[in-house]
Amino acid sequence: MTVEQLIYSVNDIDDCYINEYAGAEPIKKSKVKGLLIVSAMICCAVLIIIHAVKITEGDNDYILRQKYPVITDSQYALDTPEYDFEDRIKYAPNIANVKIVEQLPDYTVTINNGLANIKEIVFYQYKAIVIEDIGMTNFDVDSDNTITICLPSIFSSSYPALSEGMEIICSIEPASGPHVGKYLFYDKTFYYVDSDIALAAYDSDDSIARISCKKSKLIEQIENIRNKN
Predict the structure, then answer these.
(1) Are the beta carbons of 133 and 143 closer than 8 angstroms?
(2) C-alpha gyration radius of the chain
């Protein structure tokens, strides 16, 4: 029964009561109407609770997507071909499960292509603690078991919005030039991790985490692919 049906039911019952007992004392009619309204409100509350429970128990993907919107348009498409999940995992230099500790100060890199076309590009950078080196590629970490991930601000819409405390599973590669000692995201192998549930960041992802799955299941799948090579 919908909320509207409940309201109409209360009004119908109240009209019948008033018509039948038109001569009764006003206080009696008021009490009955009040009880009927309270009952309807309780029924509405129960319906809302049932609906909330259904979402909580059966739709992790729906809940997480409100928190982590899917990226449907990315500049990655301009630079790299679209590989399927297995190929991305196979070719990625490093795959890591990390947690963002903090955003570090931005820095600027000057690019000169030799044709007097000089550009200054701002880079964002984030300090992240390494939870697990998936695939055992043994990339370099700082003494406190952290790495620095950087990305160009002009393409920020192509990347997931990172924030302090966010846990992710992603492919990374060592940066060079002015970024030496840092890491760049390698491709679209990027998964949010929330309460041990993994969810793909990109709409084109074809892994089991395209719809939310256990973090352990995703890591197991990644390790199986890496160990075949």
Answers:
(1) no
(2) 28
